Known about the structure:
Structural class: alpha/beta
Shape: globular
CATH architecture of the largest domain: 3-Layer(aba) Sandwich
Strand content: 5-15%
Bound molecules: NADPH dihydro-nicotinamide-adenine-dinucleotide phosphate, 5,10-Methenyltetrahydrofolate
Order of helices and strands: EEEHEHEHEHEHHHEHEHEEEEHEH
Number of helices: 11
Radius of gyration: 21 Å
Largest sheet: 7 strands, parallel
Number of strands: 14
Strand order of the largest sheet: 3-4-14-11-10-8-9
Number of domains: 2
Amino acid sequence: MASSILSDCSSSATSRLLPLRRALLAPPCRFRPATVAAPPRRPLAIAAPQLPLLPRARGMASASAAAAASSTDSDACAKIIDGKLVAKQIREEIAVEIAKMKDAIGVVPGLAVILVGSRKDSQTYVRNKKKACEAVGIKSYEVNLPEDSSEDEVLKHITTFNSDPSVHGILVQLPLPHHMNDENILNAVSIEKDVDGFHPLNIGRLAMQGRDPFFVPCTPKGCMELLHRYGVEIKGKRAVVIGRSNIVGMPAALLLQKANATVSIVHSNTKKPEEITRQADIVITAVGVANLVRGSWIKPGAAIIDVGINPVDDPESPRGYRLVGDVCYEEASKIAGLITPVPGGVGPMTIAMLLSNTLESAKRIHKFK
Ligand SMILES: NC(=O)C1=CN([C@@H]2O[C@H](COP(=O)(O)OP(=O)(O)OC[C@H]3O[C@@H](n4cnc5c(N)ncnc54)[C@H](OP(=O)(O)O)[C@@H]3O)[C@@H](O)[C@H]2O)C=CC1
Ligand SMILES: Nc1nc(=O)c2c([nH]1)NC[C@@H]1CN(c3ccc(C(=O)N[C@@H](CCC(=O)O)C(=O)O)cc3)C=[N+]21
């Protein structure tokens, strides 16, 4: 459900909640349309990190550059990280690899999606995943179960997919109905087919030094991919992750740490989150609160990756609502060096990473290089 109120990002410390006003939608930056930065094409950075191909974004090159950027500089305008474009490039790369694999060994990757219940947003995500699979040549299998299904029914489908050789990835759409135990269900997915990367063994391997998971969770992997493709240096930088969920915040923090950032995690009990966030060269937000992160929370020149997807009422939109992130975009885009929009930032990357994980799984299972 869309929230019926929207922070207008205009008060100082706390969000003032007002009815939606059209004027708030005006683009804040004079140069905004021209600053959408297209990253050059290159293979997935997760497999082979480093090698930034874009010139460093304003303010990200060094502390002195960041210090030079002033938050009162009205011309300052962040580069937009175009997740939609990067995701398209990645899908094209994946389609080429799938065609090669099919030619060489006659195998196409298969992804099974299990959806329980009839939440509209979950149905949309699953439909979009299916479309994305078809477009790159991944065969998709779908199971739709009613809301009142038993945990055993879900487990039965997982077991069937675990032993089906044409299925290389299994995804159980979250959230599950309340009467089901997420842990039991996620534990049942074979770790070799856990393309969401949510199995405790995969998360454990992600957390451990010198170990690698079979799969990195898609949304955090997408965030890292955007940072890599836009040439954001991570090693030695300060990063703040806002949110610590098992599916986004926590694995995002682990990945940043693996990439040698110094990481702080902000959560609902954190005191003075703005002071902590203001120290960060890189901020990843995954909270689910519209406009939580204000311009005053951001270090000039920082890279901001906004994972939040928050519906707010918008009578002028055909759907009656629109999506905004956790970051007050109007304010943040005047101070940050780089920023992801919502929509069109991390969301499309999540789906691209799911396709990437499914291809990776098929290649590993069939020992195809
Ligand atoms: N773009 C994409 O592809 C995806 C987007 N999302 C979106 O990302 C957002 C987060 O999703 P998810 O991680 O699943 O959400 P969860 O609700 O599982 O986790 C939210 C986290 O935010 C923290 N939090 C809540 N309120 C505050 C606050 N005021 N200040 C600081 N931290 C706070 C919570 O802290 P605590 O742990 O203390 O409760 C918790 O760790 C949602 O908007 C979701 O729709 C999610 C997945 C993919
Ligand atoms: N097992 C499981 N794995 C998930 O990865 C998973 C999940 N369950 N449950 C729900 C969350 C959410 N999620 C998103 C995926 C794509 C967009 C996306 O493509 N968003 C578009 C907007 C789409 C629109 O306009 O509605 C964008 O940000 O541009 C958003 C959110 C994956 N999740």
